[in-house]
């Protein structure tokens, strides 16, 4: 597993690996695992839904970004080599589409501006790393390029955004269905639970649940607009959102109970993998395992 590095005030240090009390345990998905020993960076960025601090993991050269989610449970510890780490938290990384992080900056801009200027955030200076992410080449699916190409200026396009989010929602719904995730009923579990019942959920039920997952990365206003765009019926139980870890303080994480089966399913990251970008006008396809 690659080394994770930090820098003062901007990144969270991983600590001395020889001292379990100062170490974190990571479960990293994807190509980040094979980086030839090059360090990965954990940085603080503005969460696209709440605007509060959230933790993300960047690959060397900032080409890809993954969301960090902390899973915690009472009375759990880790054996690391010949030592015991009493803090049993698990840091899980999942691929993440950087466009979700860009949406709030585009949406609040009152005029066309260069992308570098749009992503300038004094409170979260690491936001500039997004400029180098490979996913940024698809920015035209949520914004309109203005002026010369060298200017790299964009203006937010809400109609494009809704179409892009619709494709994201459809893909998540397909994954939920292929995994036989239980989406019927009111308030649902914070983890993905396979249905043991014979009830067959409709496409609408999967889309409503998918909308809840996607909405974890949208403002309330955009979440409501997406719900209307998806033409989902009014329902008091529509907030079937995945319970994410509070982003403002990693010391006060919400404790999510995981059994072995749920860890296996969640670690695959299928339903949470929001890194694959859907280009406007393209047919959405999903490959089953």
From TrEMBL:
The keyword Nucleus applies. Its main location: nucleus. Belongs to the RNase H2 subunit B family. Residues 100-226 form the Ribonuclease H2 subunit B wHTH domain. InterPro entries: RNase_H2_suB, RNase_H2_suB_wHTH, Rnh202_N. The gene is LOC113206503. Residues 236-289 are annotated as: Disordered. Keywords: Nucleus. PANTHER family: RIBONUCLEASE H2 SUBUNIT B. This is Ribonuclease H2 subunit B. Residues 249-260, 267-289 have a biased composition (Basic and acidic residues). GO terms for biological process: RNA catabolic process. GO terms for cellular component: nucleoplasm; ribonuclease H2 complex.
């Amino acid at each position: 597993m690659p080394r994770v590095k930090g820098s003062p005030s901007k990144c969270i240090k991983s600590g001395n690996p020889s001292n379990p009390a100062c170490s974190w345990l990571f479960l990293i998905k994807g190509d980040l695992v094979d980086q030839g020993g090059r360090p990965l960076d954990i940085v603080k960025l503005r969460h696209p839904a709440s605007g509060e601090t959230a933790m993300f993991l960047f690959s060397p050269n900032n080409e890809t970004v993954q969301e960090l989610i902390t899973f915690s449970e009472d009375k759990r510890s880790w054996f690391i080599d010949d030592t015991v780490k009493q803090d049993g938290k698990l840091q899980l990384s999942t691929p993440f589409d950087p466009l979700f992080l860009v949406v709030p900056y585009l949406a609040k801009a009152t005029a066309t501006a260069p992308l570098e200027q749009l992503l300038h955030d004094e409170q979260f200076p690491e936001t500039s790393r997004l400029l180098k992410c490979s996913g940024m080449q698809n920015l035209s699916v949520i914004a309109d390029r203005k002026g010369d190409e060298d200017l790299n200026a964009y203006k937010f396009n809400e109609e494009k955004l809704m179409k892009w989010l619709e494709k994201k929602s459809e893909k998540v719904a397909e994954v939920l269905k292929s995994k036989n995730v239980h989406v019927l009923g009111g308030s649902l579990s914070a983890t993905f639970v396979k249905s043991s019942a014979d009830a067959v959920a409709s496409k609408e039920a999967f889309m409503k649940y998918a909308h809840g997952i996607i909405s974890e990365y949208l403002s309330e206003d955009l979440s409501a607009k997406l719900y209307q765009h998806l033409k989902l019926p009014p329902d008091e139980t529509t907030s079937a959102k995945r319970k994410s870890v509070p982003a403002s303080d990693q010391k006060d994480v919400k404790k999510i109970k995981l059994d072995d089966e749920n860890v296996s399913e969640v670690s695959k990251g299928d339903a949470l993998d929001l890194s694959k970008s859907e280009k406007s006008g393209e047919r959405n396809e999903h490959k089953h395992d």
